[in-house]
Amino acid sequence: MPIRYLRQLGLAVLATVLLPGIASAEQSLRIGYQKSSTLLTLLKARGGLEDRLRAQGIRITWHEFPSGLPLLEALNLGNVDVSADVADTVPVFTQAAGARLTYFARETPSPKAQAILVPSDSPLRTLADLKGKRVAVTKAAGSHYLLIQALAKAGLTFKDITPAYLIPADGRAAFENHKVDAWVTWDPFVASAQRQQNARILADGEGLASYQRYYLASNDYAQAHPEVLQQVYLALRETGEWTQANPAAAARILGPLWGNLDSTTVLQANARRSYDVQPVKPENLEEQQRIADAFLHEGLLPKAVDARDVSVFVPSTP
Q1: What is the pLDDT of residues 80-91, one digit of tens each?
Q2: Domains of the chain
Q3: pTM value?
């Protein structure tokens, strides 16, 4: 099916005219996020987005989720309006459940920001060594796709391992207590495990999974409030640039919010993320289709998905 585009016609000029009129009755913007939603976490902590929208009579409420799949399920159910960044795999699973989604921004690839971890003294040295092993992974996360691709590179499939589907907190506990042989996760959990548990990286996403993160909105909200998505997009882009230019300051803010991680761990995690916010393009959805097809081939997706059967918001860029 064709991609449906929502465009901000002349918004760069019209925003100051349109927004005050919309503000005559206070609106609320419900944002769902995860701990790894760095840019929106920084916006929340620094108050930048609230400041940007308050003058237009828009009040933000924040709703935290343990991982991307329940976050997009809440978006599909109408419990939140906008989703913070989720891994490229998550929209595919949500589409399979019948969700109607609007992509409105992406972070360019960060393949090294997710990895397959093993204990430092593990005998596992190659991807082929995963055969017959118990591997913790979060269902539908970017790390789930990384595991599929890593197994394929080694000539294996999901049938050759015993997956343990665990959210990051439970995956960390299982890994720390040697209940699993390997753990596939993303930053800041990778950096934390490396520094606190002396975990060893068996493989990261380089050459296996590009790991783009996407920002989404419900179709209804995107169609009714494109001017708000424009403001969120601009705020994200500016915060990404600020994070790249001020890594130490960002780490000081994020550390306490990420479970009191020390600044060195946060810096290590953030160094592997691009934080480069860009519009979503047709070729990005081609990669989404490859992800969907890979999950379907492994029997991990309940039905085929047309990754183009979504709406894409096209922001006005500076």
Answers
A1: 999 999 999 999
A2: 4-109+212-314 (3.40.190.10), 111-204 (3.40.190.10)
A3: 0.88
